[in-house]
Amino acid sequence: MITVADILALPAFEWVQPIVRCPGAEAREVRNVGILDCSPDKDDGYLSYIPGEFIVTNLGFARDDAELSERSLLVLIERGVSAIALKKVYTPIVNERVRAASEDAGVPLYFYDGAYHEVVAYQALDLIHRDSEQSNKGRILDNLLSGHDPLATRAALFELAGATGSTVQCIAVAPRALDECSLYATLDALTAVLADFKRDWDVVDAVFAFRYHGTLLSLVSYTQPPAGVRSRSEGDLVARVLATGPVSLGVGEETPLSDGDMSIREALAALKTAQIEGASIVRWADLHHDAFRAAASEGRLFWRTAALHRALLEEHDDAQGTELSATCEAVARAYGDLRLAAEALHQHPNTVRYRLRKAKSVLGMTDSPDREFAFLLGLVFLDHTNPLVQP
């Protein structure tokens, strides 16, 4: 959906000033753009202007005629247009009666300076056309997320992003001030960032950004799996996206291309948390318990989340020669009883406590109470510790 804010963010508008502030004005839907260049007497009472249309005009036909200016604007407001933008060429007359009608109807009025009406209309109609194409892509993604078929997933990601690589990662993006920032302006900035990122990283197969309902999704396909659970390229990409402006990010994990819907689900869930908490970025693994709760109704997502946490511990063990993974599994088997876990490991309980502190640090849960962390480990190692559970 294109909004008044999207239209006002177009390059054709060099300067915009609200004449009447209406609650939620920038969020009003725009279905078309029209140019007003005649009085209502010559256009069947402006019947050709449809509800939801964004109107640009300089009221040149009513120059210095306060009565005609008033009548023209009142008729447009009664038609239910989405907004009216008055170009300050002839100092358009907007009296108190028009202001009151605008406020009552919720139809915002703006003064603006910038390009000719035809340029505004061209850019706006092009944006509406782009939005229609984006909506079609959104429907493709809706179908993708409604179920899981590896072949269908690969086909959908190829249709969306031209992705043919080995893995894919999704980052969900939302402007943090929707009333003041255009979703499509952010989309253009995100598209440019992805193009630069692809140019700078040889392992990138394809990049793509598009609108998905009120969110922007960026997809990056890689030619080969990363060397570790988290790659340098991810950190670089996140930094670049954050530099585009005040946005919130939800970062999904890199997955095989046939499981690309998993990364999209993860990114959307992480973004929702970021928006609720007012955070600039939330990664899927950062959700910890909430990630498992979100995955509870999605078996594959649950097991993938558990595997991610185990991989982070195992990767640390491989690099540092520690035994965090085995210790955490023993604690999970002992249902959090550190004494029983220490006996199973043939270690002193203090050794187990020390390793758990290190494991908390690796998983980013340094301040979590022991009972909370033990509960998380029970989920992480659920398929290892419960013979009745099969991933």
Describe the structure.
This is PucR C-terminal helix-turn-helix domain-containing protein. InterPro entries: CdaR-like_regulators (IPR051448), PucR_C-HTH_dom (IPR025736), PucR_C-HTH_sf (IPR042070). Pfam families: HTH_30. This protein has 391 residues and is of the alpha/beta class. The protein has three domains: 4-123, Udp-n-acetylmuramoylalanyl-d-glutamate--2,6- Diaminopimelate Ligase, Chain: A, domain 1 (3-Layer(aba) Sandwich); 147-287, Alpha-Beta Plaits; 307-385, Arc Repressor Mutant, subunit A (Orthogonal Bundle). 49% of the residues lie in helices and 16% in strands. It has 15 helices and eleven strands. Strands 6, 7, 8, 9, 10 and 11 form a six-stranded mixed β-sheet that branches. The protein has a five-stranded mixed β-sheet with strand order 1-5-4-3-2, sandwiched between helices. The chain is elongated. The protein starts with a helix and ends in a 6-residue tail after the last helix. The model is unreliable at 387-391 (pLDDT under 50).
Q: What is the CATH topology descriptor of the largest domain? A: Alpha-Beta Plaits
Number of strands: 11
Radius of gyration: 27 Å
How much is the average pLDDT?
85
DSSP strand content: 15-25%
- Please indicate the count of domains: 3
For the termini, the CA-CA separation is 40 Å
Helices and strands, in N-to-C order?
Answer: HEEEHEHEHHEHEEHEEHEHHHHHHH
Pfam families: HTH_30 (PF13556)
Domain PucR C-terminal helix-turn-helix: 326-366
Protein name: PucR C-terminal helix-turn-helix domain-containing protein
